[in-house]
Amino acid sequence: MSLNSLFEHIHQLPSVPAVVGELIASLDNDRISIHRVSATIHKDPSLSLKLLRSANSVRYGVGRNVATIDDALLLLGFDRVRTLVIASGMVGMLKEVPGLDRKAFWRESFMVANLSRTIVRHSQLGDLAPETAFTCGILHHVGSALMHIAHPDVMQRIDALVAQGAPRTELEANRFGYTFSEVGAELGRRWRFPETICNALTYQDKPLDAVPFSPYAAAVHLAIGLYQNIASGRREEHALGEMPREVRRPLALDLLALYEDILQLVRSDDELGVFLD
């Protein structure tokens, strides 16, 4: 099945909530106001309630009751609120996909998102947004959802092999002629996400091929490698030491601070329960 044929199944994939689409598009707008973000979130009562539930959770608790969207924006910060709503909306969108282990899918997505944000936070390059990196991480595997809809049996066979250490991209490219990265990038373009994000999804598996260099693709690539090594039983310190130098060097990372923050992150509680219904 060609990539074009795959997208004949896109109608079986739920639509991205309008508010989520607006917030993702706003990541490319440095001049968007906090009032505009507040007004956008208020358009979706369900996502507003989920935001307040997240803001009042132990994971994000700020020591006082968060009763309104404006409280959340004030106490958690503009960027964090925006990405919490994006994450909540995407989790709610992908509830029932044939053969896709929803909990495992989102556990990986959230860890990759948090690792990507931490990596970019410690980059010494200018003009990078950690919350954009988080969004790229949350979306990094979204193409897999459409592939599970179109190829449920084959994707389950691939999933089983990947769980034992097989390379997903090689198996998908060999079987289909495309991978979840390419599918995710095309979904992003059809959903009118910023090209910065679509580019990161395209090159997450081969960040050094991106011209110009995509720091977000590099961050997601490093985050995926860290997650996979840790999930397979490698000690966190060893996984950090195995980050490919050729990918991390262009990011100009403060390695000491990065290693300290990542060790704290991967040893902290799983935040998935905040988002899963």
UniProtKB/TrEMBL annotation:
<dbReference type="Pfam" id="PF08668">
    <property type="entry name" value="HDOD"/>
</dbReference>
<dbReference type="InterPro" id="IPR013976">
    <property type="entry name" value="HDOD"/>
</dbReference>
<dbReference type="InterPro" id="IPR052340">
    <property type="entry name" value="RNase_Y/CdgJ"/>
</dbReference>
<protein>
    <submittedName>
        <fullName>Signal transduction protein</fullName>
    </submittedName>
</protein>
<feature type="domain" description="HDOD">
    <location>
        <begin position="13"/>
        <end position="207"/>
    </location>
</feature>
